[in-house]
Amino acid sequence: MDAKARNCLLQHREALEKDIKTSYIMDHMISDGFLTISEEEKVRNEPTQQQRAAMLIKMILKKDNDSYVSFYNALLHEGYKDLAALLHDGIPVVSSSSGKDSVSGITSYVRTVLCEGGVPQRPVVFVTRKKLVNAIQQKLSKLKGEPGWVTIHGMAGCGKSVLAAEAVRDHSLLEGCFPGGVHWVSVGKQDKSGLLMKLQNLCTRLDQDESFSQRLPLNIEEAKDRLRILMLRKHPRSLLILDDVWDSWVLKAFDNQCQILLTTRDKSVTDSVMGPKYVVPVESSLGKEKGLEILSLFVNMKKADLPEQAHSIIKECKGSPLVVSLIGALLRDFPNRWEYYLKQLQNKQFKRIRKSSSYDYEALDEAMSISVEMLREDIKDYYTDLSILQKDVKVPTKVLCILWDMETEEVEDILQEFVNKSLLFCDRNGKSFRYYLHDLQVDFLTEKNCSQLQDLHKKIITQFQRYHQPHTLSPDQEDCMYWYNFLAYHMASAKMHKELCALMFSLDWIKAKTELVGPAHLIHEFVEYRHILDEKDCAVSENFQEFLSLNGHLLGRQPFPNIVQLGLCEPETSEVYQQAKLQAKQEVDNGMLYLEWINKKNITNLSRLVVRPHTDAVYHACFSEDGQRIASCGADKTLQVFKAETGEKLLEIKAHEDEVLCCAFSTDDRFIATCSVDKKVKIWNSMTGELVHTYDEHSEQVNCCHFTNSSHHLLLATGSSDCFLKLWDLNQKECRNTMFGHTNSVNHCRFSPDDKLLASCSADGTLKLWDATSANERKSINVKQFFLNSEDPQEDMEVIVKCCSWSADGARIIVAAKNKIFLWNIDSRSKVADCRGHLSWVHGVMFSPDGSSFLTSSDDQTIRLWETKKVCKNSAVMLKQEVDVVFQENEVMVLAVDHIRRLQLINGRTGQIDYLTEAQVSCCCLSPHLQYIAFGDENGAIEILELVNNRIFQSRFQHRKTVWHIQFTADEKTLISSSDDSEIQVWNWQLDKCIFLRGHQETVKDFRLLKNSRLLSWSFDGTVKVWNIITGNKEKDFVCHQGTVLSCDISHDATKFSSTSADKTAKIWNVSNGELLHLCAPLSEEGAATHGGWVTDLCFSPDGKMLISAGGYIKWWNVVTGESSQTFYTNGTNLKKIHVSPDFKTYVTVDNLGILYILQTLE
């Protein structure tokens, strides 16, 4: 301490020792870090007040300049203004190198860390609660840099948030324990979409330079993973503070190896998370002395000098920190109104906001009313305007600038007055301010101004419309996220139904919002405001909700799909289609490419909802008994529970150490059973996620589990790869029965509605029915026989029956095998219907409780909800993918084989179908003038059918293996074929002569006829060759890829050709020198290939400027730039070939679901 400060302290030592009470002075100095706990104890041990003061001053004299400043500030805070004035002249100049702030005692390092982390500042009037702060700091220190949880819990309004902020306002704690910084998140009571917004904002704060990703996470799971990476790589050894946590499921999103401090009313919220846990309880009341201290600081008086009404106010409000602060802020402006404010509290004239609450509503409601009444008249209306804000939503200043039509500085001045009077809270993140109300304040305002709410919401919408067009909001605008998330809420609350419908029924709004935040929140809004949207037009509302529900998995992907093109795939009566058509026509005029699916009216969409809750294959999904929830499990080892209507996640459990293969709700919905590759069966509490039982008796992985339908005597059935089924009684530790009979893995089991029968499906190809009481086998159905006549190759005839589900009346059972779903009548054993929609193996099926719908889960990471009536009525013909197309003027003729082996000729324009014959074919083709058809089979045989008289011509030059592709020449006299035997045959079938083109080393995948009797062929050997089909000579040989060449095409001017490969790339080459010109399939940021799979076919436009490719879907490319011009997402995937008209305006393909697509360029 410098001489001037020391002398000043010595000079006024006697006056200080005589007047000061050391207790609260020491609290301040301990808070500032200039007095230790042991020093405090030493002072307290002195017998008299004066001796305690003398001991404290003696200690200060031995300390530095900062201690002098801290002592001076403590005197001011405790109301000793006259004594502080005596020391004012001795205040030393604090060295800037120490980083100390001469007012608060906080270092610049601490201030910077807390400001960057969004930690709230100290209240205007701050009272230390050092013991609690020390307790929190001690718990934080116990984490020792390892992941863990420190929980501050207590009643609302008890000061938990202030304590959490104060605990990290410590230089040594931050520097020693959390050098990576502190990050504050105000959580509050959230639904899934609200939590996603919080996580998106946090990820944005942690990744401001966008070095990890330039887009927001689209779901909670992705946000959790992003947060884990950011905390691990960019912010290691940092502290995450979660303020006001209500629900345990919220913590799951942050349970990713972080150090976390949280405030909550319920200390059990951490029961669902792993890691070390420490708890600091906070009393609900400040206590009389601390309450009086707050009032004394507000009115700048010593506690001893406070009037008697001060004591009564503390008693009346039960020492609530929030209430005391509100009253104190009023008294600061009107210090003579003690009696008035006390009477306001005692009269209890204000209506209680909500009964039976942990909040002290009487006192708070009254204090709120008084606070608002005492605002300046010219700003009262502005506070009333805040009634429209939602709880726990931080509003950017820009939103209120628009609402009040003011400059930013004017708005901030008004809001600061509210903040100063504890009527509003401010959160500063960098340079921007965000304002929010405590949820009690929101309740108070909405109750007080309930008659004005509609007009207040209308006001903000009117002001918004003056400044913005909804779909033109830019992501870089400060208020952008607020409007995207709450514009519909304000419109609905304003009862502006016309405007709400216009917004929600706008393809522009859907595109803008889903591109920024994903589809989940928008689907939630369609459900939330359905009653309003249906008033306008129920059909239109259904159009948009169905569009979002069935395309949500596409709208959440990157790169973002063209939503107009998706809309053009909707039925022509749909409002979505009509808006898309209108926009498309306008954009086509500016050179944009769009496609019309002209035969889509023949396609029935059987799914009602498609969700993607897991990050890997979904093995099973099931309804709760009330039909409101769906549980699912999969290869990511988790159990997920989400809403059946919207797909919003409710619960997530890391259930097993290996893949979770099945899950099931109990009849009373209290439990969920899971079984896994780890050979264990587990029972969970369906609401809390708590583990109830673990069974471990199967000797191999457990594939399935199902509860009985009666809760009177609850049993669980499980099936395993050990070929056995077991029955478990939840009241017993060991299994009750074991069922023998299957000769291979038991994949699924299901009780009949009356619990008398148990159905089981097996890899042995059978469905068996068992007596649940005796465990004896009753019936067996061989499902494999229904595949024997299918289009699948015979060597791929292993049929594993994956799962089954009973209808509510017990009369029907649904079965899944491969990617197909069958519906059976139990009594007759007859198949009622089947349906396709998944892109890969279907692992699970289940009827809803009322039987109106059923769930399916698949390797394609999706869960589909199907409507049973639609499936039963569906009789759609499914085509094999080997088709041929002839384009004649305006006609499109398609030759195809359907799933029951019928060869059919389809008029693509009219939809008329002519059934020609039945044949087991591997490929087929039409002659150019539609006089002949040809087809090859798996044995290498080739036949030609003359359509006029049904004459058949058979080649004597048979291939040795499967024929892959056949094609007539333009004069129809010659038929060219390629095969697995690596040969190409040029067969003049009228002269019965054949030329063999030999040169490929492996299977000839396909070929294309060129001009001047030339032929382009490509093979599994990675080469592309050019042949003269007259002489049989090989003229060019290109090595294009390391692996299989799947498709090729040559431009019409013969200067360049394209090739595609199993490496998921498409390349464009120079014909003359073999130089690579373009690589058309770079990897996207998600890591998935641009084509969604192997590129299996290509075709150049006549002018050589455009290229079309087929793979997982269809893409159009600009050959000059190598950029994609358009993408068409088919319902299925794995497209084999794309047929293109000579004018490059019509395109035909078939996906792996057997759906025919005839696409036409929109003009």
UniProtKB/TrEMBL annotation:
Residues 1-90 form the CARD domain. GO terms for cellular component: cytosol. InterPro entries: APAF1_C (IPR041452), APAF1_CARD_dom (IPR037963), Apaf_helical (IPR042197), CARD (IPR001315), DEATH-like_dom_sf (IPR011029), NB-ARC (IPR002182), P-loop_NTPase (IPR027417), Quinoprotein_ADH-like_sf (IPR011047). The keyword Lyase does not apply. It holds the Pfam family WD40. WD repeats lie at residues 611-652, 653-694, 695-738, 739-780, 835-867, 956-988, 997-1037, 1038-1079. Gene3D superfamilies: 1.25.40.370, Death Domain, Fas (1.10.533.10), Helical domain of apoptotic protease-activating factors (1.10.8.430), P-loop containing nucleotide triphosphate hydrolases (3.40.50.300), Winged helix-like DNA-binding domain superfamily/Winged helix DNA-binding domain (1.10.10.10), YVTN repeat-like/Quinoprotein amine dehydrogenase (2.130.10.10). SMART domains: WD40 (SM00320). GO terms for molecular function: ADP binding. Signal peptide: none annotated. Keywords: Apoptosis, Calcium, Repeat, WD repeat. It comes from the Eukaryota. The keyword Translocase does not apply. One of its GO terms (biological process) is regulation of apoptotic process. This is Apoptotic peptidase activating factor 1. The lineage of its organism: Eukaryota, Metazoa, Chordata, Craniata, Vertebrata.
